[in-house]
Amino acid sequence: MTRPPTAAQRRVIDAADPVTGRVRGTQAQLTALVERGLAFRHPRPPHDHFLTPAGHRIREARPEADAAGRPASGPERVPSPGGVFAARVGGEEDTAGYEGPSRLREVYSAWQGLLELRRMTNPDGATDRPCGWERTHLVRSAALALEAAGHPPAGPGGDGYRVRATPQPEAVAVYGPPDPGALRDLAATLERAGWQAGEYTEPRTRTRYLLASPRRV
Length: 217
Description:
Blueprint: H1 7-14, E1 22-23, H2 27-35, E2 39-41, E3 49-51, H3 53-60, E4 77-80, E5 83-86, H4 101-121, H5 132-135, H6 138-148, E6 162-165, E7 172-175, H7 182-192, E8 195-201, E9 208-214
Antiparallel strand pairs: 1-3, 2-3, 4-5, 6-7, 7-9, 8-9
Helix pairs in contact: 4-6
């Protein structure tokens, strides 16, 4: 069994960029993370280091409660040195901090960071299709693509998009407002972001939704 990271290594992992996974530390720390399969050195200059999927899993693992007994934050909240960025999947009951110009800046920054991660980790440097990180964070990635394009997420009881996990590998379900054209608009946005999406109907409820998955080529 792989040994857990040391306290110093854990601090480096926890301080990684919440979107790109870029890590900074001493050369010895970074080398140790690479040797343990928790980070990799990018082959292109400036040869920065980034978390691998295993490193991301360690970073995002949370105890059930913190030392004070408070519940740990939800899986869509990503702690970072500068605060908290949360991909809005739609339907959140607590929307505090999700509105206003600061939110627009955060979403823009997160999307640009994701495009940079594509450039650095896709073998051909392509930014027009999802990368490996997105394939392991499907709900969050699809939601970020929609919010970055200006689509409003659903609030408590309100209209807007909702992104949900599905039993199918590499696929999410995306629900939209009742407007017949809403799903087509959401599908077009996802396709521009490198996803493929098709419309389906739930057998029992007759609700229309998108089944979306990251495009590979």
